[in-house]
Specification:
Elements: H1 3-14, H2 40-49, H3 52-56, H4 75-92, H5 97-106, H6 115-125, H7 132-147, H8 154-161, H9 172-195, H10 206-212, H11 216-231, H12 241-259, H13 268-284, H14 291-299, H15 304-313, H16 317-328
Helix pairs in contact: 2-5, 4-5, 4-9, 4-11, 5-8, 5-9, 6-13, 7-8, 8-9, 9-11, 9-12, 10-12, 13-15, 13-16, 14-15
Amino acid sequence: MLIREMIEQREHEILSPYAAFSDCSAGRDRKEPPCDIRPVYQRDRDRILHSKSFRRLKQKTQVFLNASGDHYRTRMTHTLEVSQTARTIAKALRLNEDLTEAIALGHDLGHTPFGHSGEAVLREISSFGFSHHQQSLRIVEVLENEGKGLNLTKEVRDGILNHQISGSPATLEGQVVRLSDKIAYVNHDIDDAIRAKVLKETDIPAQFTKVLGNSQRERLDHLIHDIVSNSMDKPRICLSKDKEEALLGLRKYMFEYVYRNPEAKTEEQKAQNLLRRLVEYYMEHPDEIPEWNRALAAARGETHERAVIDYVSGMTDSYAITKFTELFVPCPWSV
């Protein structure tokens, strides 16, 4: 018996009957020989981890643009915190940790430079709209490997597409990631906002702290335990009513006092103008985006605008600034 087959057999012995079993996957769009060691979801996790899109997350903004400290979150550290929270919940509920981790690591691959402010401007200027969860799916299906994609399983792609708050993942593992994403960013964004002196822990309304706790550690502990106790041996993942209301209320509070806070967003307008200029430039100079982007769009019958948005949205903060400087900032004269 192959190692992979032994692992698949062990899943049926150990995991919850509500888990997604590796040997029951709906499969990939393109058939390929199975690995003799790794089940399908572990392979997907590895493919995402080794992708260029994943590595670029380390230089993409989470909340604070151009943060000068070493300890502010980036899109990659956010992803890792989501993965850690999701795996803790999945393990407690005897769900498939490999599937959970694959979805968590891939859920934000489509984020733009400069975080949600970058996403907002691309949504505004693109004729077909833009959302990071749909772009994340496009990356793993189409754009990675210079147009070959990662050929991930349907379950991983479903979880990536449906991780947003309005999403409805088909697997419990996807549902775990969907909640873990909100738990992670609300809590670590509070931590970063306190570090940036945008707010203090004591500013958080008592209606939330009395339910969730007075520190990041307490909030994570309460929310994770609540999900586990309310979801054990059940066909859905959920929070108790009071914890869910407190989490959503705290999220709304963060939007009002941090995410839309002018003090926290002093550079946002500059970043959005930068992306507008880059998109305008590449629309007028099609030969200056990578050849494979142009060839892929042509082969798929897509517009040049689609290729430009793919290229610009995939940039890191630093690369977007570098390209803007090269194109629009005069260089000093030298002899």
